[in-house]
């Protein structure tokens, strides 16, 4: 009689963190250049401008940086105080985004994983060894990993509009679809796309973890690598 009540149960924070961890492991670049950063950043901008959130007045700030902090791409979608109110951004948008990117640099994980992990464990940023000057930790900053460099991410792609899950999904799906485009170009012999140091190199597969061990203890938080996860939706701008 009540079997249908559990069909649309939302995932808990532990499950969301585990999913983000799998995404990080599966989305690995064969190489990543400044040109790739610009293409990726413009794709994030294009998708957001086509979204209902933008049409309803939301703005966005985007930044792609190397792990050392060098800016490769930076963009604002919207105007502060625009008379129409379309695409509005707040005064602290860039501050929030920089804090999210700092969390990725410190942990090697997406800010969405860190946010949901803290919530699931009931711990504070201080208890996990994160800097006290980070104003807010929420989804939107995603690590850029290379296939043959498992020691640390090479860059961070991030965006901020105020919605943790939406911002995370925007960045992670754009990264995923850009990687799919690279693979298609490589399979088709297209040499005009992003360079690939080893197109045949497989993405490392590690058995998925259970919910009980998806997040490391604070002493391990800065060194743990992500696991694997497979997502299949491909956005239209990467279909050619």
List keywords for this structure.
single chain; 5-stranded mixed beta sheet; alpha+beta; 240 residues
Would you mind describing this structure in some detail?
The chain is α+β, with helices and mostly antiparallel strands and 240 residues long. The chain is 35% helix and 12% strand. The protein has six helices and five strands. Strands 1-4-5-2-3 form a five-stranded mixed beta sheet. A hairpin with an 8-residue loop joins strand 4 and strand 5. Helix 1 runs antiparallel to helix 5. About 18% of the residues have low confidence.
Report how far the terminal alpha carbons are from each other. 48 Å
Radius of gyration equals 18 Å
User: Which secondary-structure class do the elements indicate?
Assistant: alpha+beta
Major sheet: arrangement of strands? 1-4-5-2-3
The geometry reads as: globular
Summarize the model shown.
The protein is an alpha+beta fold and 240 residues long. It is 35% helix and 12% strand. Helix 1 packs antiparallel against helix 5 and helix 2 crosses helix 6.
Would you spell out the secondary-structure blueprint of this structure?
Elements: H1 13-26, E1 28-29, H2 34-49, H3 52-55, E2 60-66, E3 71-77, H4 93-107, H5 111-121, E4 141-146, E5 155-160, H6 164-187
Parallel strand pairs: 1-4
Antiparallel strand pairs: 2-3, 2-5, 4-5
């Amino acid at each position: 009689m009540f079997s249908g009540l559990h069909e649309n149960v939302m995932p808990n924070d532990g499950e969301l963190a585990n999913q983000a961890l799998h995404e990080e492991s599966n989305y690995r670049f064969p190489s990543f250049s400044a040109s790739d950063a610009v293409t990726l950043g413009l794709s994030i901008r294009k998708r957001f401008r086509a979204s209902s959130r933008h049409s309803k007045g939301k703005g966005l700030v985007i930044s792609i940086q190397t792990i050392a902090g060098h800016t490769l791409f930076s963009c604002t979608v919207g105007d502060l105080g625009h008379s129409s109110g379309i695409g509005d951004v707040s005064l602290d948008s860039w501050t929030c985004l920089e804090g999210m990117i700092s969390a990725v640099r410190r942990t090697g994980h997406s800010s969405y994983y860190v946010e949901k992990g803290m919530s699931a464990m009931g711990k504070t940023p201080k208890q996990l060894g994160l800097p006290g000057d980070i104003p807010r930790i929420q989804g939107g900053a995603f690590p850029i990993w290379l296939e043959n460099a498992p020691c640390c991410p090479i860059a961070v792609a991030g965006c901020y509009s105020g919605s943790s899950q939406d911002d995370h999904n925007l960045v992670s799906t754009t990264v995923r679809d850009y990687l799919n485009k690279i693979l298609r170009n490589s399979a088709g012999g297209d040499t005009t796309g992003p360079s690939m140091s080893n197109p045949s190199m497989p993405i490392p597969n590690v058995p998925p973890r259970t919910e009980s061990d998806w997040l490391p203890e604070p002493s391990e938080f800065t060194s743990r690598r992500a696991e694997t996860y497979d997502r299949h939706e491909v956005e239209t701008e990467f279909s050619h």
